[in-house]
Every structure is written in C-alpha cells, then in structure tokens.
Amino acid sequence: MPFHRYRRGVVIHMEKRYLFGPVPSRRLGLSLGIDLVPLKTCSLNCVYCECGRTTRLTVARKEYVPVDKVLEELDRFIRGNPRLDYITFAGSGEPTLHLHIDRVIAHLKKHYPQYPLALLTNGTLFSSAHLRTQVKELDLIIPSLDAATEEVFRKVNRPHPALHCAEVISGLIDLRREYHGEICLEIFIAPGLNDSAAELAAIKTTIEKINPDRIQLGTLDRPGAESWVREASPERMKEITAFLGGSTELIKEPDPGTKAFHIDADFRETILQTLRRRPCTVEDLSRISGVHQAEVQKYLRHLLSKGQIEMERRKRGTFVKIKNLP
Prior knowledge:
CATH topology of the largest domain: TIM Barrel
Mean pLDDT: 86
CATH class of the largest domain: Alpha Beta
Strand content: 15-25%
Order of helices and strands: EEEEEEHEHEHEHHEHEHEHHHEE
Number of strands: 14
C-alpha cells in the first residue's frame, strides 16, 4: 500500500500496511499512526465513531497483526529521520486489544527515543494489571470516558457484554495510580445522551477520582456510526467546559500552519473520479486505493471543506458522494 514519507522536502513512496501518516492531529500535532488491529475490531460500538459501526465486538486480547512485520515497517519509515511530534497507537479499532503492544513500545523506546509515544484508547481494558504494566513506558495516554453510569455507558458506547462502567472507571483510577506519564481524558458530548445535569455531575465526580492531567471535550464534527447523533452547539460545549472546570479544554482543529500533510493532487483526483462513478464508504476508498483509512479521511475532510463532496447514511454505512453543485 503506497504512502508518503517526507525527508528534506521530498515525498518518498513506501509499502505500508500497519502505519499511516504522518498526518496533523487535533491533539498531537504531526503524528505517525500505528494500527495494531483489523478494521473495526473494538470492545465498544460507540454511536459517534467516525470509523463506523464495530464489526468485531470483542474483549479478547491477541496478536491481531504480526508484531515483527509492524517493527520492520517502522524501521523502514523512521530510517529517514522524519519530523514527528508523536508516534501514536491509534487507527480503526482499539489498540490495547493487541496482546503484544508492549513489544512495539519497547522497540521504539530503545531505538527511537527521540519520538514521544502516545496511545489513543477507549480505556476499557485497564482493569487488567498486565495491560497497565505493558503501557507504562508511554509518554501520553488519551483514554475516553463518555459516561459515568451504566445506563448511559450502554447507550453511548454500546460495549461488549463483558464490560461494565464501574469496572472501566476502576481500571482508569488504577492506571492513574500506577502510570507516571501524562493522562489526557477525552469526553465526547452527545446531546440527549450524556449531557444531562445528572450524568455530567457523575462524570465530574468520576474525573476527580481518576485525576487526569488534562480533560478534552469533543463533539460530532463528521459523520458518526449512527446518523441520528447530533453535534452539541458551541454554547453548550462552553457551558460543559465551565461546569467540569479545572484543566478542561475543547478539542481544536490542527494548527493551520501544519503543512506536513501533503495533499497529493493525483490521489485527490483519484478519489473524485471514483466517486463520480459511484458513492463509496471510507472503507471502500481505502480498499480501492490501498491508502489507510485515516489518510483517506484527511483527504475527504479537505474535499468536504471545498464543498466538492457530501456524506449520506445508507443501510451499509456512511457513503461519500460527489456534491451536486447548483
């Protein structure tokens, strides 16, 4: 699968399966992503997920992708000394489901200590002491917490039956107690689901128990797994930020000065030509082009901002199509 690497201003094409980017992140600056699980393999089926509905709902930890192949790909990429703000465990599923995530962390810390390591996680598996030990060398962990009561947890996150809200919270508290890096707790606000006075009060109490370094609030800014999920208004987000207080902040768009994500005109045109023939999901476009979904989504956001495409919810998922301009 082709992707871009930047060295001295030159775009270098390489084979990739487990990496994506580097791309500008709203939270992490210029980030190289590592994807350790197959598409939509997750312990949650969140109503707002931009990757779509979970197709493999599981809490089973195993070697979903071969670690040796991931390390080979990392070595090929990092050999060029790319400019990166973070290397991030993320992608299209839950990274901590991979049983040997610690091997990748250890390899990076040993051979490429100049790059800080981050983990984007739904935070559901930290009740495992083994997992908490595996991630202790990370520089930053960004777990999610969208609910503090079982009822809302099931409505918003639609977890695997083996998961329960109280246990997830307990795992995050234990993580904070044992982990000495930075924890940035992320909360997604879904109007009508988790923004009631009672639920926000419960979330605030839970935040105090977890004691993260920072809290970031987000809301819908692109199509989610369910078409009925709505975006919270800017005014409402400011109200919730003030209520939670402390180090709570709103997630912002990437710095417009970040230019490392190269808009390849040929690939952009390939997307448009494909969509002119028929609407496609992000997964379709990724499979057709051989480009990781995270990078496809960056191009789609660019095309959305230009008014060239639009999204439409259908039975099989959210489809991208050419916008019929007047």
